[in-house]
Write a structure and sequence with these properties.
Blueprint lengths: L2 H11 L4 E7 L2 E6 H17 L7 E5 L4 H12 L3 E4 L6 H11 L3 E4 L2 H10 L6 E3 H6 L14 H6 L5 E6 L9 E5 H19 L6 E5 L6 H11 L3 E6 L5 H8 L3 E4 L1 H18 L1 H19 L6 H19 L5 E4 L6 H10 L3 E5 L9 E2 L18 E4 L4 E5 L6 E2 L3 H7 E2 L2 E10 L5 E6 L4 E2 L5 E2 L1 H12 L3 E5 L6 E6 L4 H12 L8 E7 L18 H7 L1 H12 L1
Parallel strand pairs: 1-10, 3-4, 3-5, 5-6, 9-10, 9-11, 11-12, 12-13, 24-25
Antiparallel strand pairs: 1-2, 7-8, 8-17, 13-14, 15-16, 16-19, 18-19, 19-20, 21-22, 23-24
C-alpha cells in the first residue's frame, strides 16, 4: 500500500475524527476525516473536468490550510504532479519557476495573488482560486462513486512522481526536485515509526502544532506523517499570533526552525532578567551549573540546579507548553546552547537533517538517545558516508528522481546511487551525525586555510546579540563579517576581541560592518526558507566589504 492509499483509507475508517484544524483570529475551523474526503472528491472532480490527468503539473500557490491539503491530496491521487510554491516570493520569481515546470493549471489562495501571477505571466496557463477548486463538479460528474478515488490511487507505482518542490536557490536559480511515490512512502514509514517511539502507547490522537509552509519538503512530510497516523494537526495561520496559538493548543510536539527556538530562548531569558530578584539569580546559577555539567568543565552548583528544577524550570515549561514531549527542529543548524537550554527545562529538542533531494530527511534524533549538537543517526534503510572534503554522501529509497528538466544538474550531484549533499559532516562514536558546514560556502583564504563559515557565524551572532552574521574572506588574507541588528560598535569590538582570543590566527575576524536592518526574503538576501543568499549579500554589500579590507590594509 502506498502512502496515498494509506492516508485515504485512514480518513475513511475514522470519518468522525477531527484531523485538521485552522487557528484563525476569528476562531477555529476544523475538518473531520469524512469532511476532508468530501473536499478531496470535489477537488478531484474539478481537476478532472479541467482536463488534468496523470503526469500533468498543477501549481499550488496558497497559504497553509485545510483547502491546501484537500487540493494536494486530490491532485496526487489522480497522478497529477503538484508543484507547491511559496506565497511570499516575488511574482517574478514565482513565474520563473512556473515557466520551468509548465503547469496545466495554477491554483491560487486569493485573487490578489492570482492577479499578480496573471500580470507577470499574461500568456500563462489557466488559474483558479483554491476555493473554486473545492466547489468541484460533484463526484458523479466525473464518474467517481467514492471520494477515495481508489482506482486512481491504486494506479500509482513507486516510480511515479507526485511533486516537484523547488530548492531555495542559495546560489543560482532554484531547481525543481522531483519526488516519487516510493520516496514519500519510505519516508513516512520512517517518520511515523520515530513518532511512535516519541509518543509511546497512547489512548488519544497526538496534538501537533504547525506553522511552517507546506511548500517546504520537511513541513509537507510532517503533514503527511500526521495524516498517516492518529493525529490532529493544528495550523497556525497568523505568525503574529504564534505564541497565543501555541499556548491554546498545548501540543505534544511541533516542527520548528532554529530561528524560532532562538527567539523563544531569548524571550524567556530576557523576561527573567528584566524581573531580576531571587528567581533570576536561581535561574542564572542553575543555568551555569547545567552548562558546566554538560561540557564537563564543572560539577559544582548542584544545589542551584536543584532549586532551578524545583522552583523555576517547571513554570517556564508550563508557559511554553505543559504537554510538550519534544520540539522537533530542522532546516538549518541549531545553536548547541539553545538545544541545551530546552533540555535544561526538561523539553527535548530532536534534530532532523536532510535536503529536499533526500525527501527532506536523512537523519533523525532517537528520542531515547539524544546527543546534543548532533542531528541523530541515519534513518532506516538509508546509507551515509563521507566523501572528499568530509562531504556527506547518501543513498537509499529517499533519494529524489532528479531535477525537473535538468539532466546535467542531476548528474552533477549523483555518483552512481550516491547523492552528494554538499554538506560537510562527521559521525560520532555513538553513530550520530554532526553537520559542520556547506562545501560551497567554504572560505579559502589566500594563505590556503579552509574555513567553514557557519560555526563562526553562529558564535558571533550569539556573542554580540546580532540578528545575523555573514563571514567573508574567500581569496583574501583574513576574515571579515557583516552583522545585522541594533548593535553598539564598542560592544561588538569587545566581544570580537574575546572571541578572537580563543581562535587560531587564520580564523580570527579582523573587521566588521554593522547593518541596522536585518537581511530578509523580500530584499533578496534570504531564500524562501530563510537561508543566506551569500552571493547576493556579497554583491549588495560589496562597497562595505571592500571598505573593511581597505581600512585594514592602511
Amino acid at each position: 500500500m502506498n502512502f496515498l492509499e494509506n492516508i485515504l483509507e485512514r480518513l475513511a475508517k475514522t470519518p468522525q475524527r477531527v484531523v485538521l484544524e485552522e487557528l484563525r483570529p476569528e476562531g477555529r475551523r476544523s475538518v473531520t476525516g469524512a469532511e476532508l474526503l468530501a473536499k478531496i472528491a470535489a477537488a478531484h472532480a474539478f481537476l478532472a473536468a479541467a482536463g488534468l490527468g496523470k503526469g500533468d503539473r498543477c501549481a499550488l500557490l496558497a497559504p497553509n490550510g485545510i483547502s491546501w491539503v484537500a487540493v494536494d491530496l486530490a491532485a496526487m491521487s489522480a497522478g497529477i504532479i503538484v508543484v507547491p510554491l511559496y506565497t511570499r516570493q516575488a511574482p517574478a520569481e514565482l513565474v520563473g519557476m512556473l515557466r520551468d515546470c509548465q503547469p496545466k493549471l495554477v491554483c491560487c489562495g486569493d485573487a490578489l495573488l492570482r492577479d499578480a501571477v496573471r500580470q507577470a505571466w499574461p500568456d500563462g496557463p489557466p488559474t483558479a482560486l483554491v476555493e473554486e477548486v473545492l466547489q468541484g463538479a460533484g463526484p458523479d460528474a466525473v464518474g467517481l462513486s467514492h471520494p477515495l478515488s481508489q482506482t486512481k490511487a491504486e494506479a500509482l507505482v513507486g516510480g511515479d512522481p507526485v511533486t516537484i518542490i523547488y530548492t531555495s536557490g542559495t546560489s543560482g536559480e532554484p531547481k525543481g526536485v522531483v519526488l516519487t511515490v516510493g520516496n514519500v512512502t519510505h519516508m513516512l514509514s520512517c517518520t511515523t515509526a520515530r513518532l511512535d517511539t516519541l509518543m509511546g502507547p497512547r489512548e488519544r490522537p497526538d496534538e501537533v502544532f504547525h506553522y511552517l509552509p507546506f511548500c517546504f519538503a520537511g513541513s509537507w512530510i510532517l503533514l503527511l506523517s500526521c495524516l498517516s497516523r492518529s493525529s490532529v494537526l493544528h495550523l497556525s495561520t497568523d505568525l503574529a499570533r504564534l505564541a497565543d496559538d501555541l499556548g491554546a493548543v498545548k501540543p505534544d510536539y511541533c516542527l520548528n526552525v532554529p530561528q524560532l527556538l532562538e527567539r523563544m530562548r531569548t524571550a524567556v531569558e530576557g523576561q527573567l532578567a528584566s524581573r531580576g530578584g531571587f528567581a533570576y539569580k536561581v535561574f542564572r546559577k542553575a543555568r551555569t551549573a547545567w552548562l558546566g555539567q554538560q561540557d564537563g568543565t564543572s560539577s559544582a552548583g548542584a544545589l542551584w540546579l536543584a532549586l532551578g528544577r524545583a522552583l523555576i524550570f517547571p513554570a517556564i515549561r508550563k508557559k511554553l507548553g505543559p504537554n510538550l514531549k519534544a520540539l522537533i527542529c530542522g532546516s538549518a543548524p541549531l545553536a548547541l546552547e539553545t538545544q541545551l537550554f530546552f533540555m535544561m527545562l526538561g523539553i527535548p529538542v530532536l534534530q532532523v537533517y536532510g535536503l529536499t533531494e533526500t525527501t527532506a530527511i536523512c537523519t533523525m534524533d532517537d528520542p531515547g538517545n539524544v546527543e546534543p549538537g548532533t542531528v541523530g543517526p541515519a534513518i532506516s534503510g538509508i546509507e551515509m558516508k563521507l566523501g572528499q572534503g568530509s562531504e556527506i554522501l547518501v543513498r537509499g529509497p529517499n533519494i529524489f528522481a532528479g531535477y525537473w528538466n535538468r539532466p546535467k544538474a542531476t548528474a552533477k550531484v549523483m555518483e552512481g546511487e550516491w547523492f552528494h549533499t554538499g554538506d560537510q559532516g562527521e559521525q560520532t562514536p555513538a553513530g550520530n551525525w554532526r553537520i559542520i558546514g556547506r562545501l560551497k560556502n567554504l572560505l579559502i583564504l589566500s594563505s590556503g586555510h579552509n574555513i567553514a563559515p557557519e560555526p563562526l557565524e553562529e558564535m558571533l551572532t550569539r556573542a554580540i546579540g546580532a540578528q545575523q552574521a555573514v563571514l567573508f574572506g574567500h581569496g583574501r588574507s583574513y576574515l571579515t563579517a557583516l552583522v545585522t541588528g541594533d548593535l553598539r560598535r564598542d560592544k561588538c569590538e569587545a566581544e570580537l576581541l574575546r572571541i578572537n582570543a580563543t581562535l587560531p590566527h587564520y580564523r580570527q575576524i579582523r573587521a566588521f560592518h554593522i547593518e541596522s536592518q536585518p537581511l530578509t526574503i523580500e530584499s533578496g538576501m534570504l531564500t524562501a526558507n530563510g537561508k543566506l543568499r551569500r552571493d547576493a549579500i556579497a554583491a549588495h554589500f560589496s562597497g562595505a566589504i571592500e571598505a573593511m579590507y581597505s581600512r585594514k590594509a592602511e
